[in-house]
Design goal:
Layout lengths: L1 E3 L5 H11 L3 H9 L5 H8 L15 H14 L3 E5 L3 H16 L4 E4 L3 H4 L5 H9 L4 E5 L6 H9 L3 E5 L13 E3 L15 H16 L4 H5 L1 H10 L6 H15 L4 H9 L10 H18 L3 H8 L3 H36 L8 E5 L7 H12 L3 E6 L4 E7 L6 H7 L6 E4 L3 E7 L3 H15 L8 E3 L2 E2 L7 H10 L11 E15 L4 E8 L2 E7 L6 H4 L5 E12 L2 E13 L4
Parallel strand pairs: 1-12, 2-3, 2-4, 4-5, 5-6, 7-8, 13-14, 16-18
Antiparallel strand pairs: 8-9, 9-11, 10-11, 14-15, 14-17, 15-16, 17-18
Helix pairs in contact: 1-2, 4-9, 5-9, 5-11, 5-15, 9-11, 11-12, 11-14, 13-15, 13-16, 14-16, 15-16, 16-17
């Protein structure tokens, strides 16, 4: 693995040291994250609800808000159509709860992944019409739904699209489109998730109706779930949403969320983290849509029936366990295919398809394959008629949206972001698509791009790790994309005693010493380094400094990401 260090302006580092009276390592972290300007630094370390941008800066916002208010005042139903992932279901739940609170008659709806596919569906539009709605609001989808929007218009339903995916050259003929990524949209922050855009819409409606802004704070728990789970950069508004939302989650009045946190074994007596949301809460919400009816997630997030909340939380927990089994089977099969049919010396991307893989797990499998082989991965599930639904995940250096655009003649549909995307394809077109995509990847990526690397914020000494340092680490959060937990290089340390292989044999725990200081180290998935560690030679460790909680007791440890023999012997 390649270790990459930032190139920092030494004058800026010294300026931060002088301004804030902080140690060198903290100053380096601040400079690497552009926390030099006092105004920027203040807003970063003290995020405040007042720093959220004016929602009416987003193109189409005024028109959309007025249209919604018209339905609220007339009592005509509003149909909210969300995507089936965490972002879509939490965003739909947010709109349902917020607009209902304002007096609207709101009908939430999440499509069936297998029957309706991704995005706005005719089945959903027809249901909106049958329920008496003349207004449909999408959440986390719709930006490329040209034909389906036209269909809604034909049967007398206005469509307001709220989305954050990259728009195509032609936009749907919707009543209003809210998407900060529109080329002619002047909204100052472009990286909101789908639920974040929905939150801005609700904020605008509240302002126009003169309602209490407290409603926005009340919905921050739902907004934080979607923002964390969708892996958008935790900067600007996203940082504010997650800052308030994680606190709101700990004290949430939503009985469904409380029960979900219980079954996920999340300790709400301690500060919640983005990683806890991503790894413990989000998979259970996602499981509903991956394997069945995602409307259960919306019901869980909005129900006021405590008994139903308990029932749904346990149901989604069981769904998640079933998802894990299905996922592992598909992943094992995909790994066998990689090793048998993929030429990793030649191919700079991995594209696999099968009729035996469940469409609900292809995204997770694609992520695992990408991580294992450090190259873009596309995993496709085909049904018996040869209709394929795939998920793509990429590495730095290859923009998936651009890559899929260049190969779109072989696809039915596609959409997404630079690092994650979805597609639909006929099985008969797989070979041609594979050839075209591999050719594109070969033209974009070089061999160095395929070498795994880790970005380190700097070199740290064990003596630097004290309570002040840990307090700073806490203040630097919440951590996530765009603000990852700092990683450090710990150089030339001595291994104390005998390392222990733990867990299922994949992990390792040991103690290291540097001068008069020592600290425990945990290495998940790093047991392969056992033989090197028992040699007694000094080692270098790349990892994060974190607080470990075990049986109610806190201690500081290094969570290692890579280990190598030290060259400074």
């Amino acid at each position: 693995m390649r270790w990459n260090f930032p190139t920092l302006n030494s004058a800026q580092v010294q300026l931060v040291i002088d301004q804030y009276q902080v140690p060198n390592i903290i100053a380096e972290i601040m400079v690497s994250r552009d926390l030099v300007n006092p105004e920027v630094t203040q807003s970063f370390f003290s995020p405040d609800i007042s720093q959220l941008h004016d929602p009416f800066l987003m193109k189409g916002m005024g028109r959309a808000a007025n249209r919604i208010i018209k339905n609220i005042q007339s009592g005509i139903p509003i149909f909210v159509f969300g995507d089936y992932d965490v972002d879509g279901t939490t965003g739909a739940s947010l709109l349902y709860a917020g607009l209902s609170n304002l007096g609207g008659e709101v009908i939430p709806y999440i499509p069936n992944r297998e029957k309706e596919g991704y995005g706005l569906s005719e089945l959903g539009i027809d249901k909106a019409g049958k329920m008496g709605a003349n207004l449909l609001i999408t959440c986390d989808c719709g930006i490329n739904a040209i034909n389906r929007t036209n269909y809604a218009n034909q049967i007398g339903i206005d469509v307001i699209i709220t989305d954050h995916h990259i728009p195509g050259e032609v936009l749907p003929n919707a009543f209003a489109i809210l998407n900060p990524k529109q080329l002619d949209c002047d909204y100052p922050f472009k990286d909101l998730c789908g639920g974040g855009v929905a939150l801005k819409l609700l904020t605008a409606v509240i302002e126009k109706m003169g309602a209490s802004q407290e409603l926005i704070l009340d919905l921050m728990d739902l907004a934080a779930l979607g923002t964390s789970a969708d892996l958008v950069p935790l900067k600007d508004e996203n940082r504010i949403i997650v800052h308030y939302g994680l606190k709101a989650l700990r004290m949430t009045h939503r009985c469904g969320l409380r029960e979900l946190l219980k079954v996920a074994k999340v300790d709400i007596d301690r500060d919640l983290s983005v990683s806890q949301v991503i790894f413990h809460v989000a998979p259970r919400i996602n499981a509903a849509g991956r394997l069945g009816d995602a409307n259960r997630s919306v019901e869980l997030l909005t129900t006021i029936d405590s008994h139903r909340a308990i029932e749904l939380a346990h149901e989604l927990d069981q769904e998640n366990k079933r998802r894990q089994r299905i996922q592992q089977s598909a992943l094992d099969d995909a790994m066998l295919k990689v090793n048998s049919v993929v030429n990793r010396e030649r191919d700079k991307a991995i594209i696999l398809g099968s009729r035996s893989w469940h469409p609900g797990v292809v995204g997770i499998v694609a992520s695992k394959v990408k991580e294992e082989f450090n190259r873009p991965a596309i995993i496709i599930s085909f049904d018996e008629e040869g209709n394929g639904k795939g998920s793509a995940r990429s590495i730095k250096g290859l923009n998936l949206y651009d890559a899929l655009s260049s190969t779109q003649e072989h696809l039915e549909t596609y959409g997404g972001h630079a690092m994650a995307a979805g597609l639909a394809i006929q099985e008969s077109n797989l070979d041609e698509f594979q050839s075209a995509f591999l050719s594109y990847a070969d033209s974009i990526l070089n061999q160095d791009d395929l070498v795994p690397s880790i970005f380190l914020d700097g070199t740290i000494q064990l003596a630097d790790i004290n309570q002040r340092f840990m307090d700073f680490m806490k203040k630097l959060g919440p951590y996530g994309p765009g603000n990852m937990r700092p990683k450090f290089a710990l150089m030339n340390v001595k291994v104390l005693g005998d390392p222990k292989v733990i867990g299922n044999g994949d992990h390792i725990r040991f103690q290291v010493k540097q001068n008069r200081s020592s600290i425990p180290v945990i290495g998940f998935g790093l047991s392969e380094y056992y033989q090197e560690l028992i040699r007694g030679q000094p080692v270098d460790i790349a990892g994060v400094v974190e607080t470990n909680v075990w049986k109610g007791k806190e201690s500081i440890q290094i969570n290692a990401r890579d280990i190598r023999l030290s060259s400074s012997v």
